[in-house]
């Protein structure tokens, strides 16, 4: 199994948080798979928070469970992402950051209602303008 790199983990956690209900539905057929999601969510709510290595292992476990449940993409970000944009055009992007600094948050285009709240803690995500 390919392990999550340190740069993958925040994006994987952000994906899991943004799609928590969908993942629960996908994984409900297997108690073991559902438990993997529960362990990740519990770790994110814990004080103190898990180490990077522990969080990476939890993400890897969830990724494997999601793939085994039929989603070939799992929770990891796509391996290849290229920059988007047009020559001579400066882009401004709005993102919503995790208040705990654990995940990568969400892009503005992933938001369908305000305020944007963390699916794990219920806390408001922090709006930030990039560019």
General description of the model:
The chain has helices at residues 8-18, 20-27, 31-45, 52-68; strands at residues 93-97, 106-107, 126-130. The longest helix is centred in the middle third of the chain and has 17 residues, at 52-68. With 131 residues, it is mainly alpha-helical. Residues 80-89 have low confidence and may be disordered. It has a three-stranded antiparallel β-sheet.
Compile the SSE list and pairings.
Elements: H1 8-18, H2 20-27, H3 31-45, H4 52-68, E1 93-97, E2 106-107, E3 126-130
Q: Largest sheet at a glance?
A: 3 strands, antiparallel
Class by SSE composition: mainly alpha
Separation of the first and last Cα atoms? 37 Å
Strand order of the largest sheet: 2-1-3
What is the alpha-carbon Rg in Å? 15 Å
Shape: globular
Mean pLDDT: 82
Order of helices and strands: HHHHEEE
* Separate helix tally: 4
The helix fraction, in percent, is 25-40%
Percentage of residues in strands: 5-15%
Task: Classify the oligomer.
Answer: single chain
As residue ranges, the low-confidence spans are 80-89
Number of strands: 3
In short:
By secondary structure, this protein is mostly helical.
């Amino acid at each position: 199994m390919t392990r999550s790199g340190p740069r993958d983990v925040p994006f994987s956690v952000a994906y899991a948080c943004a799609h928590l209900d969908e993942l629960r539905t996908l994984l409900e057929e297997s108690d073991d798979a559902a438990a993997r999601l529960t362990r990740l969510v519990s770790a994110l709510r814990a004080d103190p928070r898990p180490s990077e290595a522990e969080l990476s292992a939890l993400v890897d476990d969830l990724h494997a469970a999601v793939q085994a449940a039929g989603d070939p993409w799992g929770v990891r970000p796509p391996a290849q992402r290229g920059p988007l944009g047009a020559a001579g055009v400066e882009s401004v992007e709005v993102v919503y950051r995790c208040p705990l600094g654990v995940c990568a948050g969400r892009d503005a285009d992933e938001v369908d209602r305000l305020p944007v709240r963390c699916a794990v803690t219920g806390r408001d995500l922090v709006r930030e303008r990039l560019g």
